[in-house]
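Its record is set out here:
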Amino acid sequence: MIIKNLAICIVLQFSNQTFANDTLKIHSIHKESFSCTEHWDGQFKYVGDALGTDCVIGGWYEDEKRLFQRTYSDKGFRNEDWFGFKKEVLAPCDCTVSKTHINSVTNEPGVMTPGRASSITFRTRDGNFILLAHVRGIMVKEGDAVERGDPVAKVGNNGYSRNPHIHVGAWNAEGLPMQLQFDQSSLALSDREKGL
């Protein structure tokens, strides 16, 4: 009886949430290897944040016997310690730039400065929207047509951000968040990543 009631509660909990069931496959946002942490469903309610993901470029750490990937060198206290800082950010689709926003404040790693992040919003041919946030050095403007893989900005650390990374979010024309999937076939794998 307890398990049945629990199952009913779970169904009711999820039936109150509204989200698009669609998955949007996008081009890799970096040439280098990167890892992402997804915002779980219901964590954020704002369009662009809901079901979004935070992506960090990795670099290689090596000593005499070990080789593994990590996100920063030294202690990571400087933006320049982070392997992704100021690396190129690539257009996620063949689409149009619908909006840009610039936040000129650069955060120190570990310290978050409130305020809206620098961002680029793209509109796909299907009418979906993709947001890239915490960028710097934006290279496009509203109305520009871009092709997937075109450089559009650099990795920054601004707004509600504690370290250099790119937040990616997507939503459909009705404003419902979409699940993201990256086409990583374009990644330029190094010999180390290939295990050579």
In short: The radius of gyration is 18 Å. Residues 101 and 118 are 5 Å apart (CA to CA). The chain has a mean pLDDT of 86. The longest strand covers residues 95-101.
